[in-house]
């Protein structure tokens, strides 16, 4: 049987703490700056580097490519591919040899960076773009589906100027404490973000992930042959001290998907099935494990086996 790479959108991945034994870089231009401690912390963690000559330039605007690379590091995303990724699958204005191409490919393949066609790597990132990628990362790390807000919630006086595709992200970022306005109750969605501001929001995301995800939850997918066909399993183990509660947006608590070498679906377990549209919960007490599993019969699998490269739980 063809080897299948198991990949998953995990419920939780602990954001590893790194203790810096020595200052990675000393910047001569941040003394007295309001973001000094955060800049030093993020530099020590390897999230960001200076611009040379001992300078950080905290008030210089940050490029889209620079922010995405820093966000990739905060999210600690690591993907192993069967073949060398080609960034042109997503963007026509990026080359594979560009210094940011590899992390950008990861972020695009996970739909964290969900622009397509042109990435505009050297453009300065706007506040609404930055927040959108930030919230997409949060959703990915927690495997969370954040629903739409009903109507305008009045967080910012200039909500109407926020692009439609970014409105929910901005509202959730405000709700989660990732961002604040720039005075006078305004968000200024098309305003540019400085390097210092980027470090602040990345630190907030990092702290939120540490608090929300923890290191107590282990999520493991498996795909093995059994007597009835092929068993697809998603196992969730709670090794922490507190109960873990998973809130499901509907009666469908899980799904299993088989993908081809281009990561296009060839089989989805839930296809054609009906589920109640009510919130449900799964409670996992401390020290306990839950397992979700389904079997794809041998006949069905044999019909598609030549196409299957990936398994997603």
TrEMBL record:
Pfam families: BsuPI (PF12690), SLH (PF00395). Keywords: Repeat, Signal. The keyword Mitochondrion does not apply. Gene3D superfamilies: Intracellular proteinase inhibitor BsuPI. InterPro entries: Cell_Envelope_Struct_Comp, Intracell_prot_inh_BsuPI, IPI, SLH_dom. Residues 1-22 form the signal peptide. Residues 22-85, 87-148, 153-216 form the SLH domain. This is SLH domain-containing protein. It comes from Acetivibrio straminisolvens JCM 21531.
